[in-house]
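Researcher: Let's continue the batch. This sequence belongs to L-aspartate oxidase, and it's 393 residues. Same format as the previous ones, please.
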Amino acid sequence: ARIEELIQLGMKFSERESHGHLELDLGREGGHSNRRILHAKDVTGREIERALLAAIAAHENITVLENHLAIDLITTAKLDQAQANRCVGVYVLDNQTGEVETFSAPRITLATGGCGKVYLYTSNPDIATGDGVAMAYRAGATIANMEFIQFHPTCLYHSEAKSFLISEAVRGEGGVLANLRGKRFMEGVHPLKSLAPRDVVARAIDREMKRSGDDHALVDITHKPARFLMDRFPNIYKTCLSYGVDITKEPIPVVPAAHYQCGGVRVGRHGETNLAGLYAIGEVACTGLHGANRLASNSLLEALVYARRAAEHVLQHPPEPVAAELPKWQAGSATDPDEMVVVSHNWEELRRLMWDYVGVVRSEKRLKRALTRVRNLQEEIQAYYWDFTVTSD
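Model: Same format as before. Here are the structure tokens for L-aspartate oxidase:
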């Protein structure tokens, strides 16, 4: 039903001709035994976003505030109100003016994505900094399974490439993993070989890189016809070519990278959290559906299903009204930051230690080292936060 709704909103999935008529083209990805993935070439997420933004633009009662960043949730407990704790609003930073605005609402939904940017190497965009989870935690919502970070086995390895994912569908269409000497190292690791689940493949690549001393691995799909690759993976073909890699003629250099946050804000069947008035959907939420290692392409399905469930739940359970006027953001004696280099250094240190100590393979010793360093960073950031005005960083 959710897929049909997407199509009605203008989503265009790839089709193929079969017995004289067109049918939806199904792809296969890691851990799958059959073809089951609807896709739009190799830019499915972009096409879904396009269709949804167009649908939003058609509704005059929906206001989209661009260049705004949520800072903190407002709860009755924070306001010292003598009633059961509930979420009643949110503080939002206007990046263009630098002002923090106050929004009042009886229901608030977090759809802020994951936390991939806390790692040095990630497939995620710069905005995936875990803000939604942090805000929910500070507000009193339950957080679960944050240790379950999925690492995608194949991000493009290139000094100038940033967060570019080599889709699992490349291996689903016959791409094989090999080391720099051309040896296929997934043989004997898993029955599905190069199409094994992501955690298995990511660990295998990490192990092979450490064993050989190589700084990356290869995905080879050159045995497929060039025209097929250019049609099935137009974005991957074009992007790789811009970095000097012709996927029709040479293997693609890849490395594992942080990809998906399987844990998050714990929610029920309708996206509701334990904090009244607060919902969470998408990667920021922990529904339990993905376990410790999400199956490829299930994230979009989960987001669609839970978004609909959350909306229906709100309509079926009309919220109590909240005060229209909430306290304004108090900046106190904070001044404009005088040395942003401190923030950039803290970011760099956090991302490096997370990659080195809390990455694909972990140990108690590494985790203890990470905890010590994170606590030191917390003290520095806390002091910086109270001294200077809020920025997007």
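Researcher: Any comment?
Model: The chain has four domains: 2-57, 68-148+262-316, 153-258, 341-387.
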